[in-house]
Amino acid sequence: MAISLSTALISLALFIGFATLSRGSDECLARNFGHGSVVCECNSTHCDSIGSVTLPPLGQFVSFTSSKAGSRLQRDQGPVQKYSTGAALRLTLVPSQKYQRIRGFGGAMTDSAAINIMSLSSRTQDQLLQQYFSAQGIGYSVVRVPMASCDFSTRLYTYADTPGDYNLDKFTLATEDINMKIPLLQRAQAMSPQPLHLLASAWSAPAWLKTNGALTGKGSLKGKPGGKEHKTWAQYYVRFLEEYAKHNLSFWAITTGNEPSAGLFNYSFQALGFTAEEQRDWVGLDLGPALHTSAHPKTHLLILDDNRLLLPHWAKVVLSDVHASRYVHGVGVHWYLDNLVPADLSLGTTHHLYPEYYLFGTEACAGWSPADRGVVLGSWERAEQYAHSIIEDLNHYMVGWTDWNLALDQGGGPNWVKNFVDSPIIVDHIRDVFYKQPTFYSMAHFSKFLWEGSQRVGVSFNQKNKLECLAVIRPDGSVVLTVLNRLSSEVQFEVWDPAVGFISSEAPARALLTIAWNTH
User: Fold this and answer.
1) DSSP states along 178-197
2) Per-residue pLDDT tens for 302-338?
3) Known catalytic residue: 381?
4) For residue 388, which of 468, 473, 278, 274 has the smallest C-alpha distance?
5) Is 259 in the active site?
6) Cα distance between residue 506 and residue 445, in whole Å
7) In the chain, where are the structural domains located?
8) What pLDDT is stored for residue 26 in this prediction?
9) CB neighbours (10 Å) of residue 393?
10) For residue range 436-488, what is the model confidence (pLDDT) as tens digits?
11) What is the CA radius of gyration of the chain?
């Protein structure tokens, strides 16, 4: 059939317009709230996305840059050269220095996160979940799930609030689990190209099992390890795993409880106090055997789930005990108060004492400090804090890093005790949009590129410098180098991989850079 010239021109114009729209649909819709950098706004039809990343063939490298100036995973490509580029600063890959293997990165599906996600329209919810979990997103593979309520809930509850129910006959999941967290986890799993690693942590035992008769404040389990209260609390974990399994959700790991040190003080929200010695005996006599004889014996058990300043003492107490240590797989670590103890003294010493037990970051968030509280839309300083912490932690043997709430509202909640903090995604349900903070992109530089099974390797410098870096070799043999420049000036450098050659690069001022290349 003949087509007129005018029809052809209209068709061409429509095609060009569509192509322009399609090309722009992956770009950041930047919004500046006056806090130093930008956020990227997403709605039901538009969200910037890094997409699936395929490395160029041997002889080429690809890089991704995010910066205070506004770059968000900006992609560049260049040649790997046979000879030195002559840069004064050289980073040399040392693949013979092999360290720990990566397990994954993620965030927490708290009640508050679920409330915020579900406050959006269905299509915008999908956009948000895809940003974290789909192949087009940033590759989250870990989701921490609070067992019952925490401060990021709207009410106080556990799954067994009937006094004297030692057999847990009245144990039941909450409406928050059934109507929000479980459906969202199922949707996230359906989007994810790999099985999600679910990680469960409890904040408090039921009040009737505790010395203070309350979910909050200073209180521990009644009785002693081996006694009925301790055994009931161990079975509570098993029942939780069983109930979630009914919804086709299985857990990679559980922790011995969120921040056991908090319950030793008059804490303002849900807590359960344990000393290291009490946790050791509860794991050895109650929780370990209960998990081992349950239908979920392969679920990993992580001790501590608290700040690194408690290491290596906590690990020494629990892991030096033959009865407890045989049930333990790793040590969960929070990032709060990191500045009080060096990583080498805490994480490094713990790894060298107990190398068979992995170190895993189980919680972190910006905006928790009274001096710097709540949501700050567009803070690049917080993105740098994340990147610095992840690089430092992984360079001291951590195998993964879990952020706190997947999403919060603009006030940093809801939180029943008003413990408002920040999140990589902030929801504005009135406009049906969400904002991806600089911390979202900071997480992306690790979660998207450091695949499970990647192995950290050595990096050496030919001179002193202020760059912070991390190198891994991925399971397919490709190399990923992550570089953080917290200086206010650009730093030029070259990378030398003895297997392939030299890469000329630069780290812009106040920027995070990921460089990746194939080795065969």
Assistant:
1) IIIIHHHHHHHHHH-SS--E
2) 999 999 999 999 999 999 999 999 999 999 999 999 9
3) no
4) 468
5) yes
6) 16
7) 56-100+455-517, 103-447
8) 81
9) 24
10) 999 999 999 999 999 999 999 999 999 999 999 999 999 999 999 999 999 99
11) 24
- What are 299's two structure tokens? 């679920």
Q: Could you give the CA distance from residue 500 to residue 497 in angstroms, rounded to a whole number?
A: 6
- What the block records as the tokens of 449 is 């590129």
Alpha-carbon gap, residue 27 to 289, rounded angstroms: 52
> What CA–CA distance (Å, rounded) separates 40 from 29?
5
Is pTM beyond 0.70 here? yes
- The active-site residue, picked from 176, 229, 278, 363, is 363
- Find the catalytic residue in 41, 176, 259, 278: 259
**Which spans in 89-248 are helix H?**
111-118, 122-133, 175-176, 182-191, 228-245
Cβ burial, residue 514 (10 Å; 0-12/13-18/19+)? buried
- Quick check: 303 and 318 in contact, CB under 8 A? yes
* pLDDT, tens digit (0-9, with 9 covering 90-100), for 9-21: 333 333 333 332 2
CATH assignment of 56-100+455-517, given 2.60.34.30, 3.30.460.80, 3.60.90.10, 2.60.40.1180? 2.60.40.1180
Q: Which of left, alpha, beta for 25 (phi over 0: left; psi -120 to 50: alpha)? A: alpha
